[in-house]
Amino acid sequence: MTTETKQTKSFGHTMRDEFLFDEKWTNLNHGKLPYVGSYGTYPKSVRKVFLDYQLAQESQPDNFVRFNSTAPLLRARQAIADLVQAPLETVTFVQNASTGTNIVLRNLEWEEGDVILTCETIYGAANKTVQYICETTPAETVHYVFNQPMTESDLLSGFRKKIQDVSSESGGKRRVKLAVFDSISSMPGVRWPWEKLVGICKEEGVLSCVDGAHGIGAIELKLGEVDPDFFVSNCHKWLYVPKSVAMFYVPVRNQHLIRSTLPTSFGLVPKDTSIKPTIVPRPDSGLGDSAYISNFAYYGTLDNSAIYCVPEAVRFRKEVCGGEDKIRRYCRELVWEGSEIVASTLGTRMMDVPSQDSPMANVLLPLALTSEGKLVLDVKASVEPNKAEVSSAQIVDWLGRTMVERYDTFMATMEYQGSMWVRLSGQIYLEREDFVKAGEILKTLCGEVRAGAVGRV
Asked: Which residues form the Aminotransferase class V domain (predicted)?
């Protein structure tokens, strides 16, 4: 779907004026480079709408929450449904992607032999949730580990084989009931062929739960066409919506499986039909909302002002930025060009990935780790033995703190498959020179790490 319109403002540093960045920070501060991939930020026009809704709630609390919040929630759902190309009745909101995956995992009923398939790049919080489910129910988990570089065809065939092996190796006593995988993984930032993974799940009779935390605003989503079983995506990362807002997509065929919100609230319909359901303390939208939609319309006292900002964020992206296609293309092309600059400056390489359809890329840092995940320092023998090597966790912490304190910026670094990497992001208020600066900063800091700066007071 083409969504380009006339652009009213050019991308690059001039676009910073539309956002809320602190003037004392350099162009590599929060919201620049990879930090936007973590938490995101939003423009001034969205802030105005955000504050207006907060004022409306506080000026007449009961009136707004009970009677006037239905319309802005419906407008937000419609804006998201149009954006992800899904039916309105399949889309609602939760606070973040972790909440969405928790809701799916905690609502499904797990029996002996049920297996949850996860992938190596699963987000840490989602992985913890899977572990908890396996501790408290009969479910088990199987982990799909893949080595880089890996072609898309190898990734897909390995995924299918993992599903089939669970059943064949147990004589049919175990089966993969649910597969959890990313649209774009967080660390490293890699765009996975999630659409084709969903297709494999359908063919193998497995439910698909897509952690699309990095999804809306970053890549095109055609949820009605791809039709995953569950999909959650943060609006506050790439869509320029305040925290905390995530779209939660559940097709009608699966909505009976999602009986409870998190926390469980008024919308739960008891299985015991003799129990009279509690009336939800707000009206529906007048569209004959399903039990699923009504359940998520109200499940506790929450400030939903950020949700109501979704239409304004979509308008800003269309009218000021020229539409989704232009935004995605600029961010994607910038990050891949910029990452080549950083890799050249460091004398390393970019990570080989299945697809470059992503506003995030990864560059190898010149920090060689041992098999134990530690870095042997370039220091003289006189250095204390306990300072002769540092762990990757220490390096990540030191790099992050030093970038913030010394350079007023932040770049997400990680250990992945025995090497140190930095994740970079493209955004509409970034330019090529920002990546030039990033490369210089990383080169300086990596030199200091090798010289033993980590752990010094």
From this structure: 70-252
| Residues forming beta bridges with residue 117, ordered by sequence position | 142, 179
List CB contacts of 374: < 8 A, sequence separation 6 or more.
Answer: 389, 390, 391, 392
The CA distance from 307 to 42, in Å, is 13
Q: H-helix or E-strand containing 180?
A: strand 175-182
Predicted model pTM:
0.92
Cα 202 off chain centre by: 23
In angstroms, the CA 53 to CA 48 distance is 9
DSSP letter for 271, please.
S
Q: Which residues pair with 140 in a beta bridge?
A: 115
Q: Which residues contact 80 (CB under 8 A, 6 or more apart)?
A: 91, 93, 216, 235, 247, 310
3 state SS of 268: coil
What is the 8-class DSSP label of residue 12?
Answer: S
Distance CA 369, CA 132 (A): 32
**Closest alpha carbon to 107 in 272, 291, 293, 261:** 261
Nearest to 393 by CA among 451, 449, 349, 457: 449
306, 327 contact by CB (below 8 A): no
Across 381-390, average pLDDT: 59
pLDDT in tens, 386-421: 557 899 999 999 999 999 889 888 888 999 989 999
Sheet holding 175-182, edge to edge: 91-94, 246-249, 230-234, 207-211, 175-182, 114-119, 140-144
